[in-house]
Amino acid sequence: MVHVMRNVSRYLKAIALLGFLVYIALSTLTLAKYAKDADVKSNNTVSTSGDAHGYQKMAVNILRGLGPADSESLPLSEYKLDLSTPWGEAALAYERQNGPRPVNSHFDRPPGFPLMLAATYSITGVNSLYARYLIAICVSLGALFLALGGYCVSPTLGALAGMLTAFIYLSAAQPAWFDGILTEIPASFWVAAFFAFFALYERLDDQRSQHLKTTAMAISAFSLTMAIFTRFNFFTVIPFMVAYLVWRRASRFRVILFLLITCIPLALWSSYASSKLGKFTFLSTQGSGLFATSNNIDSLNGLGADGWNRGGWNPGWIKGQDGSLSCDYRYLPPDGSGWKRGLSFWRQNLSELPRLFYNKAEKGLWYNDGIVTLPTKPEGFHILAICFLLLAIGQRHLSREG
């Protein structure tokens, strides 16, 4: 009877795995269609209404040997940008009068996503369709990594949790994800990869799979490094990971390996940025401004009676009665004193800091920008599920030791 039950369980697992892989394949086809439709809608260009054109310019400049410059230092036609917007019209007028701008790097954007785009364009040529296909691939592989990480935590319950997480993530995919070419999805991909390979590292036996375990650690560290280079705020993960490795009594070699893979690229990038700008720059010049624009009265209370964008990035939004948005950037100090201004706001509102931090946590975990209209707000579920699976790694070891 026990043998029969084991066979039934094995067959059920195989059916679940096959169904999951079929769902991934069908979702990938759907994502590819979303990407192609978005590219047709944009006339095979990258939007210049938000941040996307900054990453596109950096990618093309890297590809053409100009380094991580965010200036329009090539003919505008080479960047494949939407020039029908006010920004595009102004850029065209400048180019007609002055030609391409001098090569300039402000170092306010991380280079990870532009490097991914440049690598893609080195194969396909500069084509926004393939940038959108790259995002679709990141979604599909990110879902696979979530399932793999869950399996490494626990072959049954962890695998089910991982597949459920992947299902929620894929079911949240919307055509609007591909309108802009932005960092959110590539960052999620690298975070999922970091989790999956670190979970694999934790699962492998040190005696029988020593080299494979070290390789999994190295890939996990590389994935974290790429996540940091895609969204710099992930650098705060490094000290917690080192503390965890020491607590888990990882070998000194592996702790040093983790630090080398994560910290050396960050140190080299910071040194390069500092030398170019002539002043010390840790990762990015954006931190000061972001701190001020995320720690002000609008971040505390939001805008209007409904508290719109409470806990979010508020550089100085003005919301019209018709729902339109404009911005006067009143919270962005022109002299680079953002840290001072943000800390001054904290000091003047000490009693409100718990509410401010709660608003930030709520915004981060249950973020919904209106693109996804499902009441479950699946972006938040995706983040919470990753947190759950990371927590499960520790629980798995506690159960072993207990």
Account of the protein in words:
The structure is a single chain. The chain has 15 helices and 2 strands. It is mainly α and 402 residues long. A two-stranded antiparallel sheet has the order 1-2. The two termini are 31 Å apart. Residues 397-402 have low confidence and may be disordered.
Largest sheet: 2 strands, antiparallel
Average pLDDT value?
84
Q: Name the beta content range.
A: under 5%
In whole angstroms, the N-to-C terminal distance is 31 Å
Strand order of the largest sheet: 1-2
Measured on Cα atoms, how large is the radius of gyration? 23 Å
Number of helices: 15
Alpha-beta classification: mainly alpha
Layout of helices and strands, plus pairs?
Layout: H1 2-41, H2 52-63, H3 86-98, H4 112-124, H5 128-153, H6 157-171, H7 184-203, H8 210-230, H9 237-247, H10 252-277, H11 287-293, H12 297-301, E1 317-319, E2 325-327, H13 338-348, H14 353-365, H15 378-401
Antiparallel strand pairs: 1-2
